[in-house]
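pasting input
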Amino acid sequence: AQSVTQLGSHVSVSEGALVLLRCNYSSSVPPYLFWYVQYPNQGLQLLLKYTSAATLVKGINGFEAEFKKSETSFHLTKPSAHMSDAAEYFCAVTPTQGGSEKLVFGKGTKLTVNP
Amino acid sequence: EAGVTQFPSHSVIEKGQTVTLRCDPISGHDNLYWYRRVMGKEIKFLLHFVKESKQDESGMPNNRFLAERTGGTYSTLKVQPAELEDSGVYFCASSQFLADTQYFGPGTRLTVL
């Protein structure tokens, strides 16, 4: 069965610093991978996704993630944190590389950005 | 284009009562999913509709939960009778047929006292 591990339930960075949120997955077949963000009092919004094309994926708001099959990782990065990036971030996978599949989520990482 | 909407945004009920949550997907989306996040834990899949048919209900916790999607449009999730452990945030998501991107609603926060 697929599983997702997000290392660090809380991450704190200074404004302007690098953001690195870690995600490792376990899957018997290459999955699709997603990062979602939830801002306070809002629903989940898709940041970016990997669907077997380019391994370096660029998303919205300056975020990007790199799929590393050998490390079973899909870490999310942003070169310079902004106060508006404060939110909870979720990594998710689908069981197979197909559409219309259920998502398996990690526990989420809350990002705090300090001025 | 309107996004996924959910009603109510919050619900507080007593143990043993019944609650019905509603989800309106994005117009034209055949796929509709329900997920739940219990406090401190990960978001977990409950079930998946394709149009009005249940494609996968492997995540439904027990028979106190009943989901419907009559006519293939909006969906309801009924919890009867509610237990304390049912508290959490219930998310609905929708996607186009065979699409990999799911669009989420804002969630319904259910508190069972």
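fyi DSSP finds no helices and eleven strands in chain B.
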